[in-house]
Amino acid sequence: MVLLDGKKTSQEIKEELKIKVNQLLAEGKKVPHLAAVLVGDNGASITYVNAKVKACEYVGFDSTLIKLPADISEDDLIKKIDQLNNNDDIDGYIVQLPLPEHIDELKVTMAISPSKDVDGFHPENLGKMVLNLPCFLPATPYGIVQLLERYKIETSGKHCVVLGRSHIVGSPMSILMARKHPYGNCTVTLTHSRTKNLKEITKSADIIIAALGKTEFLTADMVKEGVVVIDVGITRVKDETKKSGFKLLGDVKFDEVSQKASYITPVPGGVGPMTIASLMVNTFKAVEMK
Ligand code: NAP
Q1: Is the pTM of the predicted complex or chain greater than 0.90?
Q2: Which among 13, 64, 187, 265 is most buried, taking Cβ atoms within 10 Å?
Q3: Catalytic residue among 5, 14, 91, 96, which?
């Protein structure tokens, strides 16, 4: 079994970006500038946003963190987004999800200028992805594709089963794995909570991408020998033995599935760091596409 080390791979990608940023500086050009909007004080969101800001600093991007109160109105948030759309110094920005319940996430996503949508959630970018046109690919699925690519995992003609059909992970992931591309060309089965006979489907999979948010859902009896397993899930579970008071669990029962897998991502240290690296790649692309 080979561990798909997202931490190491994302570090390689960041080193490559660092070189590109230094080239921009040597040419007297502006460095990429990423902004992150954080609404409220959700602990996991704060952690993710801080990690993104830290990654910007590491590669030499400028970064701006905009913290807004949890009770901000939808209109005021959209005004803030308009300001970011019109600020020429900001090349790309993200609005960290989830947003408080009184705010319509889709309305907010639609307000983001597609040319600055480095998370790749805007319908224009999703539509371009379907048509195989240049666009910002959604950060998590893009990170997974980059991980498969860097580990030279054969995908062509393989049966890929995606667990979960969210707009940010499962659905775009299924499209990327099926597209005509060296790291696509899979026959894809997209599953969800209404899927029947899931075990039969997962047992026939060459590649499984689990994005359900259900801890240790995928067990060894659900997979065949040699399967490639990508675990997207990140759930905080109470753990008094940890300083933070919690541990992170994925959607895959790692100890047993890793015995049968040919390649598998750990949690943490798998897909999470790759998502951040993809965000950095997209931000650099935002400057190039200007
Ligand atoms: P989500 O929006 O909650 O969607 C979960 C999906 O799982 C839904 O489509 C749901 O089906 C499906 N599902 C639920 N039970 C199922 C079952 N028994 N069999 C098959 N499918 C089932 O989740 P998400 O935003 O995609 O996130 C999923 C997980 O990934 C979470 O743990 C999240 O924290 C994590 N995540 C990690 C990263 C990263 O960078 N590592 C990024 C994003 C998300 P229905 O549509 O029928 O309800």
Answers
A1: yes
A2: 265
A3: 96
